[in-house]
């Protein structure tokens, strides 16, 4: 009988073009997503060596990092940003790569539009010059971020030279308590394994709490795999996956659909498959999570207090915490719920989907009913992950609730997740953010980021401090 | 890509863990369509903090002006996939980074730009960090073929390296050219996949 295999091993084996004696493999890439920041040098490389794109139809490009989230009719004001977006358009035209441009209603963050268009499917290999490509693993696709040299390699050959990753399994027991979301779950996981916990591994998320998540929630979890060091995250495809995909523009056509679903059902890990590393945790222990430092592993429950470096024995670790607290402007022992904020960012490939916006609007609506709005002096922006998410939210009336409650309703893009467009923190400003990285300077030089779930971000906007979302849920 | 065979140079100590790619090069420097000139953004935000003891940042100290080697802590290069981090290091003169561990994507990006990354246990890193803190007099010699680092006191440390990566670095190979020679295998793979999973080809 064949050796039991993991989901990762099945996808890997299905994509090996050639295996070298030293274990390095040439693997086939089914789909390639491209954005404006990490592709110009790759297209330039092709041009200089007279090479073509092997499968333009397996490639999809969209500008997202540099696009303004305000009125776009005037174009992009910043010259460098404009050149980068224009370069993507001209490269796509020259090499025949399909492009969703800035003014297309389908435009959005590359990791939102892949699933939304049905480009992302179980069993595929998917790459993009962006570390949050791990998002697509929610569908049981092997999806990972690559550098620009690898972008060029995939454009030219539709393959990559890789060594197989190790298998890691994170099993999550229990069901998410009221007010606890996929974001809290993944932050708690990163807190537990550390930012290098998954290095060299692909993480498969399993267990009842993961199975119970919607596709949106699964994407949030897989999205932050890279924050735990893993290039890719995976969740086995199931009926939730198939239901999400059915009817989307790029999925298999009628006839082929049944054949594809039958294949997808063969993908989940076999009983008895071996993992190099296994971690289990229970969500019944989880409170809403919030980061206090400058690494996603610096995370605590909202009931916690800012840690005291003096209590840390290891000198290197102590210095690290001291540096983080100095950067964050926090005093040891302060209750996290007493930390005042200046800005709120709701959006990103982590939390810019329709469910996220519904969660925010639900809290805003409750606050409005109690006569509350975004706290005085706080600026709270909501940036939908794509034009279609925005359209859906507007059809549901979410934008009206949010605007009435004092939130700023914006155009789609990466926005203040990494501050490449005009949306950024000023030095010293503190932000409750639904994005994925709280690194120094990530949201603007000197800006201070606290990573939270969408509901927690809404609660922070309404109170003007880090707050427990459960106070608003009743 | 430039070959990497041997390197004798000053090593600069950067004793920090989790140096993420936003620290190596902040996002605002990524608005370029070129691979060159990114040294201007190298460590831009942490440079202004100096050495943490009131002095300038290590690469701004005269002793380390010509450093081509960087000694770092754990999980260097974590975060974003931006190859600009490797381009910025290269533009800043760095050809080799020695640390406890590196993130997967950064590891791959460095190798494709002729930068050798060497992973060593914490006790060896501590020793090299001490050596490096002796400044311009403390040069290291790295011999990739022999997989050795020779310290200023003559002691030698052996390091492991992926055989394929070693081959590419020693010869300065562009792996796209090598893969394109395998086009018949890729054609064959696509033919087989199309027969089994026709929906991947628009069916």
> Which blocks of ≥5 consecutive residues of chain B have pLDDT under 50?
none
Biggest sheet architecture of chain A: 5 strands, parallel
Q: What would the principal axes of the Cα set say about the shape of chain B?
A: globular
Query: What fold name goes in the CATH topology slot of the largest domain in chain B?
Result: Aconitase, domain 4
Number of helices of chain A: 17
Could you name the ranges of chain A where pLDDT drops below 50 across 5 or more consecutive residues?
Answer: none
CATH architectural label of the largest domain in chain B? Alpha-Beta Barrel
Helix run count of chain B: 8
Strand order of the largest sheet of chain B: 4-3-2-1-5-6-7
Summarize the model shown.
Chain B: It catalyses: (2R,3S)-3-isopropylmalate = (2S)-2-isopropylmalate. The complex is a heterodimer of chains A (474) and B (203). With 474 residues, chain A is of the alpha/beta class.
Structure description:
The complex is a heterodimer of chains A (474) and B (203). In chain A, helix 6 packs parallel to helix 8. Chain A has helices at residues 7-15, 40-48, 79-95, 110-117, 148-157, 182-193, 208-211, 215-223, 239-245, 256-264, 315-328, 348-351, 354-369, 387-395, 398-404, 454-463, 470-473; strands spanning 16-19, 25-28, 31-34, 59-61, 125-128, 142-145, 159-162, 166-173, 201-206, 232-234, 277-282, 289-291, 299-301, 343-346, 379-382, 408-409, 430-433, 448-451. Helices cover 33% and strands 16% of the residues of chain A. In chain A, strand 3 (31-34), helix 2 (40-48) and strand 4 (59-61) form a beta-alpha-beta unit. Chain B has 203 residues and is of the alpha/beta class. Chain B folds into two domains: 6-172, Alpha-Beta Barrel (Aconitase, domain 4); 174-203, no CATH class. Chain B has eight helices and seven strands. Chain B has helices at 21-24, 44-47, 84-91, 104-111, 122-132, 163-171, 175-180, 183-196, and strands spanning 6-14, 69-72, 96-99, 116-119, 139-143, 148-150, 156-158. In chain B, strand 3 (96-99), helix 4 (104-111) and strand 4 form a beta-alpha-beta unit. The mean pLDDT of chain B is 95. Chains A and B meet through helix 2, helix 3, helix 5, helix 10 and helix 11 of A and helix 4, helix 7 and helix 8 of B.
């Amino acid at each position: 009988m064949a050796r039991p295999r993991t989901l990762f091993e099945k996808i890997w084996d299905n994509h090996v073009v050639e295996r070298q004696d030293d274990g390095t493999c040439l693997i086939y890439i089914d789909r390639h997503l491209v954005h404006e920041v990490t592709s110009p040098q790759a297209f330039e490389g092709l041009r200089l060596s007279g090479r073509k794109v092997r499968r333009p139809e397996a490639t999809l490009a969209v500008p997202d990092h540099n696009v303004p989230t305000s009125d776009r009719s005037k174009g992009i004001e910043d010259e460098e940003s404009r050149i980068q977006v224009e370069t993507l358009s001209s490269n796509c035209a020259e090499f025949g790569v399909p492009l969703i441009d800035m003014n297309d209603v389908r435009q959005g963050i590359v990791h939102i539009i892949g699933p939304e268009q049905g480009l992302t499917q179980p069993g595929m290999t998917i790459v993009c010059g962006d570390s949050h490509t791990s998002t697509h693993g929610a569908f049981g696709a092997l999806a990972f971020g690559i550098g620009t040299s690898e972008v060029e390699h995939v454009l030219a050959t539709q393959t990559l030279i890789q060594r197989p990753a190790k298998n890691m399994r994170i099993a999550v027991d229990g069901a998410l308590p009221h007010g606890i979301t996929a974001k809290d779950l993944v932050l708690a996981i990163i807190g537990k394994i550390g930012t290098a916990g998954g290095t060299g591994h692909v993480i498969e998320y399993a267990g009842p709490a993961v199975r119970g998540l919607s596709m949106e929630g699964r994407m949030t979890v897989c999205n932050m795999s890279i924050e735990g060091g893993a290039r890719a995250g995976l969740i086995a495809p199931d009926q939730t996956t198939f239901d999400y995909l059915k009817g989307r523009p790029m999925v298999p056509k009628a006839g082929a659909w049944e054949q594809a679903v039958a294949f997808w059902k063969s993908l989940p890990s076999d009983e008895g498959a071996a993992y190099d590393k296994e971690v289990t945790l229970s969500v019944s222990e989880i409170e809403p999570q919030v980061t206090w430092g400058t690494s996603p592993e610096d995370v605590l429950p909202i009931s916690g207090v800012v840690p005291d470096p003096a209590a840390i024995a290891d000198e290197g670790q102590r210095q690290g915490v001291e540096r983080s607290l100095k950067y964050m402007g926090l005093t040891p022992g302060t209750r996290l719920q007493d930390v005042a904020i200046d800005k709120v960012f709701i959006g990103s490939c982590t939390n810019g989907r329709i469910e996220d916006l519904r969660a925010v609007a639900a809290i805003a609506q409750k606050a409005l009913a109690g006569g509350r709005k975004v706290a005085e002096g706080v600026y709270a922006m909501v940036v939908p992950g794509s034009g279609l998410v925005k359209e859906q939210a507007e059809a549901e009336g979410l934008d009206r609730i949010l605007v009435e409650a004092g939130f700023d309703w914006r155009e789609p893009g990466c926005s203040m997740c990494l501050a490449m467009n005009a949306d950024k923190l000023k030095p010293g400003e503190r932000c409750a953010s639904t994005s994925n990285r709280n690194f120094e300077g990530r949201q603007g030089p000197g800006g201070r980021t606290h990573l939270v779930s969408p509901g927690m971000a809404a609660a922070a906007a309404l109170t003007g401090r880090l707050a427990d979302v459960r106070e608003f849920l009743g | 890509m430039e070959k990497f065979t041997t390197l004798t140079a000053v090593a600069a100590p950067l004793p920090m863990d989790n140096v993420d790619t936003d620290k190596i090069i902040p996002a605002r420097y990524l608005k370029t369509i070129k691979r060159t000139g990114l040294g201007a953004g190298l460590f831009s935000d942490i440079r202004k903090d100096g050495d943490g003891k009131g002095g300038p940042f290590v690469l701004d100290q005269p002793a380390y002006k010509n450093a081509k080697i960087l000694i770092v802590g754990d999980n260097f290069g974590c975060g974003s996939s931006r190859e600009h981090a490797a381009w910025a290091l290269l533009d800043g003169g760095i050809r080799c980074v020695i640390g406890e561990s590196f993130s997967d994507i950064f590891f791959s990006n460095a190798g494709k730009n002729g930068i050798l990354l060497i992973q060593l246990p914490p006790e060896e890193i501590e020793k090299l960090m001490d050596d490096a803190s002796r400044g311009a007099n403390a040069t290291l010699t790295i011999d990739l073929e022999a997989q050795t680092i020779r310290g200023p006191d003559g002691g030698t440390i052996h390091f492991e390296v992926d055989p394929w990566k070693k081959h590419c670095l020693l010869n300065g190979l562009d792996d796209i050219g090598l893969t394109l020679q395998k086009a018949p295998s890729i054609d064959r793979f696509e033919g087989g996949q199309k027969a089994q999973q026709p929906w991947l080809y628009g069916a």
